[in-house]
UniProtKB/TrEMBL annotation:
Its cofactor is L-ascorbate. GO terms for molecular function: ferrous iron binding; L-ascorbic acid binding; peptidyl-proline dioxygenase activity. Keywords: Dioxygenase, Iron, Metal-binding, Oxidoreductase, Vitamin C. It holds the Pfam family 2OG-FeII_Oxy_3. This is SM-20-related protein.
Length: 203
């Protein structure tokens, strides 16, 4: 719990937090093997809201697999961790989070994602972005760093190391993924003000 409080402090003060070893080893292994098992079902990601469907590999070159709590029930330990995370944000950051949407993402070698914000113009219910990296043997030079832009325009790089978690305020923190030089795996999602189905009505 103490850890959580200092992470909440970070995100309140700086708009982002970077947490190493966020996942327990057994949970990491479970998610990683689920990821590898689903790889054949990944599809090229689009940009924009809802079934997001503008595909533009100049902007973004990752393949994704959207998770579904009912269908992907064997990830229950992960879903409970998300429930706990939401609860803590609501309690200590006074947010009103009530849903989430998550996908697995695979950037093949050469894949990147241009600088962007995670909120869409037509749908602004993404409050917190949450990325967990699943790259076991990431080395300097492998590329695929997350670039985070600070308010003063400066930026810094975050390596996509196994079990590292990055969370930031979706509307506040511009970011990019630099070109990966080998396959780059992550579990990325958003904690929502309203469940995404509602976003369709309010968008
Ligand atoms: O994988 C990352 O480091 C960031 C991905 C991202 O920005 C996104 O999917 O919106
Ligand atoms: Fe993003």
């Amino acid at each position: 719990m103490e850890d959580w409080l200092s992470w909440m402090d970070d995100i309140s003060n700086k708009d982002y937090v970077i947490i190493d070893h966020f996942l327990r080893e057994d949970l990491y292994t479970e998610i990683k093997s689920f990821f590898l098992g689903q790889l054949p079902a990944f599809t090229l990601a689009g940009i924009g809201a809802l079934e997001e469907h503008q595909i533009n590999t100049k902007v973004r070159g990752d393949f994704t697999y959207w998770l579904d709590r009912k269908r992907d029930a064997n990830l229950e330990a992960y879903w409970s961790l998300l429930d706990e995370t939401m609860h803590i944000f609501n309690r200590y950051c006074y947010l009103s989070l009530s849903g989430y949407e998550f996908h697995l993402a695979h950037y093949p070698s050469g894949g990147h994602y241009d600088k962007h914000l995670d909120q869409f113009e037509s749908r602004n219910n993404r409050m917190i972005s949450m990325i967990i990296y699943l790259n076991d043997a990431w080395q300097p030079g492998d590329g695929g760093e997350l670039e985070i832009f600070e308010k003063d325009g400066s930026s810094f790089l975050v390596e996509p190391l196994a079990a590292r978690c990055v969370m930031f305020k979706s509307a506040e923190v511009p970011h990019a993924v630099l070109e990966a030089h080998k396959s780059r795996f992550s579990l990325t999602g958003w904690l929502l003000y309203q469940p995404s189905a509602m976003g369709k009505f309010f968008g």
